[in-house]
What we know:
The chain is an alpha+beta fold. The relative contact order is 0.18. About 12% of the residues have low confidence.
Amino acid sequence: MQNTARLAAPALIAAFALSACAATGQQTPLRDGSDVALGQRARVDGPIVQPVKVLEDSRCPMNARCIWAGRVRLQMVWIRGNGEKQPFEVTLGEPVPLADGQFTLESVRPEKMTNVTLKPDDYRFSFRFAGGL
């Protein structure tokens, strides 16, 4: 009986600890910004960011001929050190000021195709931050 009680106590402590993590909704950010999905948090050379929504994907499909290359715009959130969430937008290849530097959406995957409709879960993004002390 004492062995059961001795084993049950650590199991209960672990269960409470895990439930506390789940209840806070905290997400450990990815180590870098090289392969980030919508809704994932990533540490990009300093700032922690999260792509929230594809606002525009007007890229020319790779199996089509276009007169304009198109662009991709994302709604993003910067998670500041104090936990405050600051929304911002980013356009593929165009640096925007963020914190003490410049933040850039460098690539979007997969390539667009005329015969495939991309769903939000299909997208992966690469980001770069230049700046800091």
